[in-house]
Amino acid sequence: MTDKNTTVNLEQLASLCKRRGFIFQSSELYGGINGFWDYGPLGVELKRNIKDAWWRDVVQRRDDVVGLDASIIMHPRVWAASGHLDGFSDPMVDCKTCKGRFRADQLDNTPCPQKPSKKVGVCGGELTEPRQFNLMFQTSIGPVQDDSSVAYLRPETAQGIFAQFDNVLSVSRQKVPFGIAQIGKAFRNEINPRNYTFRSREFEQMELEYFIAPGSDQSWHEYWVKERLAWYTRIGLAAEHLDQYIYAKEELAHYASACVDIMYQFPFGSQELEGIAARGNYDLSRHSEYSGKNLEYFDQEKIERYIPHVVEPSAGVDRIALALLCEAYRVEWIPKEGAEGEIRDAVPGEKVPAGCEERTVLRFAPLIAPVKAAIFPLLKNRPELVNTAQELYRDLQRRWPVFYDQTGAIGRRYRRQDEAGTPFGITVDFQSLEDQTVTWRDRDTMQQIRVPMAEVPARLSDALA
Fold this sequence. Notes:
The protein is an alpha+beta fold. The chain has helices at residues 10-19, 41-60, 76-82, 84-87, 158-163, 165-172, 217-234, 282-291, 317-328, 383-397, 410-420, 430-435, 456-464, and strands at residues 23-25, 37-39, 65-67, 89-94, 101-103, 131-134, 138-140, 150-152, 178-187, 202-212, 242-246, 258-266, 269-280, 297-299, 304-306, 309-316, 329-335, 344-345, 356-362, 373-377, 402-404, 424-428, 437-442, 448-452.
């Protein structure tokens, strides 16, 4: 795996994300709240595109996967059966000096709040003995708060799938092997949220539980690892920035036969985007035991009953969004208007070369880009240009998220859309009035060509396929 993306400046990226409306600190008006983030106009479109791409490939384009949207709060017995009540915890220490709270197993990688150049544990602060800290958020159901009203915000979306397995099976007319997919919010009371949006207390998951016959675990696990790796390259992550972490036997959960994490090279190191685990029949067996309901599947072809095994690909939407932002982010030296030259990556600390200027751009794959195209009239004070551009904009808006901008010099409008990651700029100029063509500008190459206005929808559709 290359370390190219370690050159991305996370502070500069965060600044761009706020400036262009991708990500805001939650409750920033009141000083913010650690571990929670709000997605602005462009950020919400980016996340929606990620989820739509996942749903199309995992659910809509397959005959063997159906969807579910389970509630965030479920019966507490669900979490007893899954093991979260007893086992979903991290070792925690408190610092008596700075009053901070830290993961005991991550002290070597955690900067001291008072002495950022040093790590917690070697900064001179007095630490308490480690103790376990349950990561679930506790809440109450109903008007009276007592032991009978205790409930929890779900720490993962998977358990809703297992709890509804029998219902989904009975109405979907599926046969093993088949999957149930879900996208939704999850909550974990992380001791130390960090690395921008990577580790947060509120996040979204895309999870698939693929139910299989016992004995087919290895082949299906290998299948889904391959499928999921290919998906990441389709949405715009470079293969050289992806890697696999294959769990050793001693690292696996006691019920798992295999687990692979798909890793991405973030600026802060190689970190997990998605885990793909062969979990055996642990989950359905536990829910069968705790609920008293028989969750066996009758295989008509084999004439036998069994509790299905499961392969679970589980991905984080927010982590994927951050990876795509890191992958797309570029600071470049480009030729000034009228000058010749190539587009080059800017070299930090060096002056912009003569005949060049600097631009910041997000090179999203068109499929993932929040805005697919921007439409511009060359001049805002010429009604014939404005009317034609707005007519084209309204036509495209029926099918895609597009943007209309008539303010400022055309070059400045291009730069704004480059920062937003918009792949195509479409300009209506005076030639458009004569021959019904427009200027089509490519974000990455900055090349401009003439395109018949009537062909713009088809050309955009092809680019987004």
